[in-house]
Task: inverse folding
């Protein structure tokens, strides 16, 4: 059984494969082609951004040298610092405390997962959530 972090990497591979086959795509088309939920896609984008393999031009994602480092990297620093100070928490709380969107928080989480700096676990509730701790 794959860990959640392994799943993030697997999903990043799906995104990379679709973009390498189909070329630049908008987020919705990328979600449809990969069959990933929003949070899965956003962590995959963060993962690929950390690897320097994905960029965003207007509303399109494409493979290439990343231009996402300033935003996602900065948010990853905020997320890491918040979890270091506060301890285990879910992504919604992380986003709220850092005054960033949940999309940004998930992308930052993908970045940190690629750096092997976090542990993640799905928690069951009304809506699926991810609980984050530091390694």
Result:
């Amino acid at each position: 059984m794959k860990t959640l972090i392994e799943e993030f990497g697997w999903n990043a591979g799906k995104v990379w494969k679709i973009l390498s086959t189909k070329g630049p795509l908008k987020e919705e088309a990328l979600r449809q082609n990969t069959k990933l939920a929003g949070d899965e896609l956003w962590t995959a984008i963060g993962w690929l951004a950390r690897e320097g393999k994905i960029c965003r031009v207007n509303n399109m994602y494409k493979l290439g040298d990343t231009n996402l480092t300033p935003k996602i990297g900065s948010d990853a620093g905020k997320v890491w610092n918040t979890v270091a100070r506060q301890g285990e928490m879910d992504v919604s709380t992380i986003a709220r405390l850092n005054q960033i969107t949940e999309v940004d928080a998930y992308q930052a989480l993908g970045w940190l997962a690629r750096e092997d700096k976090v542990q993640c676990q799905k928690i069951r509730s009304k809506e699926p959530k991810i609980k984050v701790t530091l390694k």
